[in-house]
Design a protein that fits this description.
6 strands, 131 residues, TIM Barrel, 6-stranded parallel β-sheet, alpha/beta
Length: 131
């Protein structure tokens, strides 16, 4: 998966594109660029509305996160968990949930997350995660 660069993902035959942040193209535009064969995921932060729009515009999955470059707080961790639970019950489109700590993985999985995306801290210190 390549972040935000739909045309480059096509040129390099990547598996797909993950859209996030202000520099990301809109979902419908990215879908037109990558076609139907490539995966298209969208980081929707903590927004149900953004998640539903992304699904309508062709996303293959949505991803709940506290937001780009935002440190997780107890409130945002709880919000990701609750949104994941709601989405898994109400929608068919797969949901990815960001975990900022190892302790969040089991609750997110139990809530129905199809995939877990580790936060940047995992990449900085993977030895802290005993998964």
């Amino acid at each position: 998966m390549l972040q935000n660069r739909a045309a480059l993902a096509v040129a390099q035959a990547c598996d797909g594109v993950h859209l996030c942040g202000d520099e990301a193209p809109d979902t419908a535009t990215a879908r037109r660029v990558v076609g139907e064969a490539m995966q298209l995921g969208v980081d929707v932060g903590l927004s149900r509305d953004h998640a539903m729009r992304a699904g309508e515009e062709g996303a293959d999955y949505i991803c709940f996160t506290p937001g780009e470059d935002v440190a997780a707080t107890p409130e945002s961790v709880a919000a990701v968990l609750e949104l994941t639970r709601w989405w898994a019950v109400m929608m068919e489109l797969p949901v990815v949930a960001q975990a900022s700590a190892e302790a969040e993985v089991a609750p997110l999985t139990a809530a129905g997350a199809d995939f877990i995306m580790p936060a940047q801290g995992w990449w900085d210190s993977p030895q802290d995660w005993s998964l």
